Structures are given as C-alpha cells and as structure tokens.
Amino acid sequence: MGGQSRVYPGDSSSPLYSSSARRSLFLRVGAAFFAGFVICLAVVARYASSRSFSAFTALLPTDVGTPEWHQYPPAEPTNGFPSVFPSNVGYPGRTQAGAEPGVAATAPAYPLHSNVAHLVPPTRFSKDNTKVTTKDFNIFRSWGGLSPWYSIPRGKFGVDSSPEAPDTCNITGVHLLHRHGARYPGGYSSTSGPSGFASKLNKNAENVTVTGPLSFLNDWTYKLGSEGLTPFGRSQLFDLGVSMRMRYGFLLKNFSETNTLPVFRTESQARMLDSAHNFALGFFGYPLEGQYQQEITIEAKGFNNTLAPFRSCANSDNPNRAFRGVPRANAWIEVYLRDTVPRLQQYLDGFDLDVQDIYAMQTLCAFETVALGYSKFCELFTEKEWEGFDYSYDINYWYNVAWGSPLGRAEGIGYVQELVSRLTQTPIETHNTSTNATLHNAVTFPLGHSLYVDATHETVVLNVLTALNLSSFAAMGQLPTDHIPKRRTFRSTELAPFATNVQFQLLSCSTEPDPQIRVIVNDGVVPLANLNGCQDHPDGMCSIHAFVDAQKENIRSTDWNFVCNANWTIPDGWETTTGYPV
C-alpha cells in the first residue's frame, strides 16, 4: 500500500467528484426535484379546488366536537374492599371543641369573597378598537347567571353599610337562601347552546377548516356533562358553608341549649342535593351524622315546593307568559354580536356562522371555565362583547322570572309566606300557593330556630326578591334591547350568580326599640325604605314587625291561582315592574 492514499465514498478529492461531475449531478438532481415539486403542487391544487379549500389548510378531524365524557367512579372496581378501608378505626386522640366563631358579630370588618380560586382567566382578549382595555374588567363578573358569586362592594345597592353587625346591635338569627354551585349546561335543545354548536361542528368536520384564533378547534372535543354540579361548584358550596360557619357559628349555641338540631332544606334534583351536602360539609365538617337534619323536598310536577314553585305553576310552561325574555334577549344578541360574526367567520371555512353559534361560543367559555378551569373560547371576544353577553342574561332573567315577568311575584310568594311564618313563629293557616301543607309541621318545618338554610335555583331567588317588593332593583325600569343602559339597578351577575346567597339577618339593637331585620344579597345590604312602615335607615334595617306587615300585604295582594292557573293574555305593549300581570 506504501504511500498510496485511500479514497472513501463521499470524499471530494476522489476523481468521481471532479468539478464538472459535481455540476452535472447538481443539475440533474435539481431538475428532478423541481419537476416533482410542480407535480405535487398540481395535485394538491386540483384536490383543494374541488373541496373549495386553501391548499395548505388541513381539514378538521372527524372527531372534533364529539362528546368526551369520563365516568367516575368505576361501577365495579377490581380493588374495591370497603371492609378493609373503614372510615373510622377508633383511637381518635384527645380533642376538645373550642368556642364557636362569629366574625359577623365580633370582627371590626367583614370577610369579603373576592377571589375565584381554581379558575384561570384568559391571557388575552380580542382587540377592540372602540374601547380601551380597563384595568378593573373581570371576565368572571361578565357572565350573568353563569358568573361565580362574589361580595358586592359596600354601597353598591344604595346602603352605605356592610354585613357585619352595626356597633349597637347583636345578631340573633339568620335565614339563608342560596343557589346551587356551578353546574354543567342544561335546558338547551339538541341544536342550540354549547352542545348544539359542538354537534354542528362535528357534522361539518369533513368540510371545515379553521385558522388563526380558531385553530384550537382542530383538536377540541365537547367535555361538558349535563345539569350536574362541577368540581368548582362543589368547592363553591363547601366554601360558602365554611364562610357561614365562620360568620354565624355562635348561633349554634341556641341549639345546644334547647337540645335540638337545625333543619336545612334542599330539593331532590342532583345538583341541589349535592350543593346542600357540600354546604353542610363546609358548615359542620365530616361526619355529618348527628349534627343537623337535611330535608329533601321533591322537585317534580304534582308536588308543591316553594324552592321550585315553577313545578306547580301551570303558566310557567306557557312561553308567552313565562319566557317573555327569550325573544328580547335574542334581539339584543343580534345587536351586540352583529360585527362579531364576520370577524370570526374569516377564520372558519365550511359552514356559515350565525349569531347563535357565536353566542354558544361565549356560553362555552363560561361553562368550560367553571367545569374544566379554563377555556380557549374566552379569548375570542372583546371586553365590549363580554359586556353584551352579561346584559343578555339580565334581559332573560328580568322578563322571565323577575320584576318584568307577570309570574315573578306569584312564584316567589310561597317562600315569603314561609319566611313570615318563621319570623312570627306562626304556622301558615291557608296553603293556596306553592307551600306544601304536608311538610308544614313542627318536625320538617320547625319554628323558633335561630338558623335556617334553604337551597334553591337562581330563578327562585329572583322570584323571592321580586315577591318581597325590593323595588330598588327595578328602579331602572324596562330593559332595552338595542343598547346597555348606563344606570343599571338590575344585574344578574350581582343577584343570581352561581352560589348566590341571600341573608335575612335578625338583630337586637340598643338604639332601636324593636327587633330589626336586614336583607343582604351576596354581602350587599339592600335598602328596605320602599316597604310600608320601613324607614330609610343608614344600615338598611327595618323593624321585624313593620317588615312582616309589609310582607303580609304582599301576600294578600298576590293571587297565585289566577297568575298560575287562569287563562289570561298579555296585551301588546304591556310591561310591568312589579312582577305581576295586573
């Protein structure tokens, strides 16, 4: 081999790779590549033109929008041995209960509920050239009845006072009415709402392409259940229970002294029962046995129930009487989403979006967030569009169940009767509304207790506020459908969010000759001066005697049978701000 050099394949010093050979090889390879590229372009272009798609945009996978549900717990777990894992094995160690908390009675300030744990807001919103982003914008407070509850700022409802007991007063009792926690969607048809949009997307998946901000739909599936409480909803009620124990735990001493247990009420519907149990776990702690009694009323047609009065009110099924808000809300949706449709349509080919599709996408933002913790749908919209979404819920609630509804007052009057019965410790004599005579007895409807807790729906909360004639919320009058009024006294995100709560706070004050009552909605003190006999009090108080007299007049002037069972008609142009048809 001597000094002969070795030549390896790929070595540029080889005679095989002379400069002329390299040039020839480069030209041949380049020509072949270019020809192949042109042929590929022609094939793709022909395919794309036949489908009316962009040549470089992929089709949606066919499983886009399909339901993705996870069933837990498993029906028959292979390692389920309950006898091996008892809930109590004894040996608890030494414990001693301390004094009951009473923040509402003893602390110099009130613990306000301001944060939304477990939920993640969008990192950005769509740009809105007509409005500068505001620092105080909070998307969690822009979903109407789908918003999580939060403490209303002091003075927001017109009373410059907070929920803790005024300096000269002691809290003697509390009646709490609250809504269930955040839930999965329900009440939509198969072609509307979040599930309807998912179905529409799935049916058109073979023809649809998405780009830009809608690109996330490429692997989006429908993950929402139906009607039931979400994990965040459970936490809301647990936290509400803890909060109420911290504020009013001292009232339990009355039960210890009388050797009795509190009776809390809820309904048979799954999310209602789950909410009540989670509230109780927060309020009492585990285990619940022996600490209270949970009454479960039946929510179904044929059963009177003040916590679900719509089940026994026949006219609540009549669209012209019970759902007057729907066409009005739809009219508003056409206004505020008019420019949103073409803005989002440019990122979706394959079917035409309409305002109901866009509205469903906004609804998906809210439901996905309270169910899954985060939603990409939220960042598709501007702050202005979220304000429009929030107002759409106001319109629906106002005309369907509150002061603008002909049924609102009657559907809430049964609960007002029960409240008066408890305040006066006098049984209801005549059951001619939604009250249940069978359950109105000393065991299931006890009188003389210092603490009552009732779980219901947000629609019923609004029914009750209407029936109580708390007219300051109706001061703005009718809700227009072509713009958002600057002065808004009725806002569903303040009155009817998930876990909304109403406290009827009873007080004994050294500066007042009679026992007093206050109405507190989501920590906001409500003025009672419009009620006959109630004065304009700086802390929003009214004597229980005057309050009861005003409510007895509301009861006398409300004809349940006429409102719920008579065949009456609503004249064209008729409106109300009292929640009554006449």
From TrEMBL:
<dbReference type="GO" id="GO:0003993">
    <property type="term" value="F:acid phosphatase activity"/>
</dbReference>
<dbReference type="InterPro" id="IPR029033">
    <property type="entry name" value="His_PPase_superfam"/>
</dbReference>
<keyword id="KW-1133">Transmembrane helix</keyword>
<keyword id="KW-0378">Hydrolase</keyword>
<keyword id="KW-0472">Membrane</keyword>
<feature type="transmembrane region" description="Helical">
    <location>
        <begin position="25"/>
        <end position="48"/>
    </location>
</feature>
<dbReference type="InterPro" id="IPR033379">
    <property type="entry name" value="Acid_Pase_AS"/>
</dbReference>
<protein>
    <submittedName>
        <fullName>Phosphoglycerate mutase-like protein</fullName>
    </submittedName>
</protein>
<keyword id="KW-0812">Transmembrane</keyword>
<dbReference type="InterPro" id="IPR000560">
    <property type="entry name" value="His_Pase_clade-2"/>
</dbReference>
<dbReference type="Pfam" id="PF00328">
    <property type="entry name" value="His_Phos_2"/>
</dbReference>
